[in-house]
């Protein structure tokens, strides 16, 4: 990974990433390792090969904790385990998500609840679990991954879009509640990032061309394009930013 920016205050910090072994999450884990942070991540699938590769590259392996994030008790136990290994969590990155396509007509109650259990509920309960440790540290940073999809009014995954809109609202509520403890909470809003999953399942040539036409910048986003923005929100460089939604999408939507 090319290190475009160095945030010196992240060295040695305890960082926890959900879904940190694949796609955007893997790029985030590597980005924090490159800064010298102590990184723990949860992933539902095996990430042993990724951990070994990171250890070879950086001389320090991230702590991989196998976990289904819909199991809140197990997820919060993983945060405790990470804190025991690396110290109180200073940076929490809620990245994991499932954007499987679905329609209004074919979505069952079970489908809806399963989507929210992956895409929204963990963001609340990881923050709940990390907050006390951040207070002991004198502050911290929580970064909740939302999406520009609901801002665009996309079709094809209404439950996913509802959850991503909910993340932005939750971010603002937590920023207000945790601000007196110097805990910052921000949302990061990626555009269409071309992970392997996106390329395999949904990135048709026609859709890729149409989306690029909406961007001001005429290059498709890759996972590495999201890393520096995340590092910035994690670091003291953004110490007076909280309750905000930062868009990294090549110029499709605007805020403000």
UniProtKB/TrEMBL annotation:
<dbReference type="InterPro" id="IPR002347">
    <property type="entry name" value="SDR_fam"/>
</dbReference>
<protein>
    <submittedName>
        <fullName>SDR family oxidoreductase</fullName>
    </submittedName>
</protein>
<dbReference type="Pfam" id="PF13561">
    <property type="entry name" value="adh_short_C2"/>
</dbReference>
<comment type="similarity">
    <text>Belongs to the short-chain dehydrogenases/reductases (SDR) family.</text>
</comment>
<dbReference type="GO" id="GO:0016491">
    <property type="term" value="F:oxidoreductase activity"/>
</dbReference>
<dbReference type="InterPro" id="IPR057326">
    <property type="entry name" value="KR_dom"/>
</dbReference>
<keyword id="KW-0560">Oxidoreductase</keyword>
<dbReference type="InterPro" id="IPR036291">
    <property type="entry name" value="NAD(P)-bd_dom_sf"/>
</dbReference>
<feature type="domain" description="Ketoreductase">
    <location>
        <begin position="13"/>
        <end position="195"/>
    </location>
</feature>
């Amino acid at each position: 990974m090319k290190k475009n920016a160095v945030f010196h205050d992240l060295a040695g910090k305890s960082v926890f990433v959900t879904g940190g072994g694949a796609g955007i999450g893997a790029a985030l884990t590597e980005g924090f390792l490159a800064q010298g942070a102590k990184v723990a991540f949860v992933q539902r699938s095996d990430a042993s090969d990724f951990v070994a590769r990171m250890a070879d590259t950086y001389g320090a392996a991230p702590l991989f904790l196998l976990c289904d994030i819909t199991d809140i008790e197990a997820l919060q136990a993983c945060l405790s385990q990470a804190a025991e290994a690396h110290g109180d969590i200073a940076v929490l990155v809620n990245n994991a998500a499932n954007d499987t396509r679905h329609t209004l007509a074919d979505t069952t109650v079970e489908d809806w609840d399963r989507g929210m259990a992956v895409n929204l509920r963990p963001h609340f309960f990881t923050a709940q679990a990390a907050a006390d440790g951040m207070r002991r540290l004198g502050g911290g940073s929580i970064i909740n991954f939302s999406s520009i999809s609901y801002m665009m009014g996309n079709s094809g995954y209404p439950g996913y879009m509802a959850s991503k809109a909910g993340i932005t609202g939750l971010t603002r509520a937590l920023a207000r509640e945790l601000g007196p403890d110097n805990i910052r909470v921000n949302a990061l809003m990626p555009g269409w990032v071309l992970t392997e999953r996106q390329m395999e399942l949904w990135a048709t040539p026609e859709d890729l061309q149409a989306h690029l036409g909406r961007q001001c910048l005429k290059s498709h986003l890759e996972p590495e394009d999201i890393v520096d923005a995340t590092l910035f929100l994690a670091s003291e460089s953004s110490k007076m930013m909280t309750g905000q939604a930062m868009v990294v999408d090549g110029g499709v939507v605007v805020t403000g």
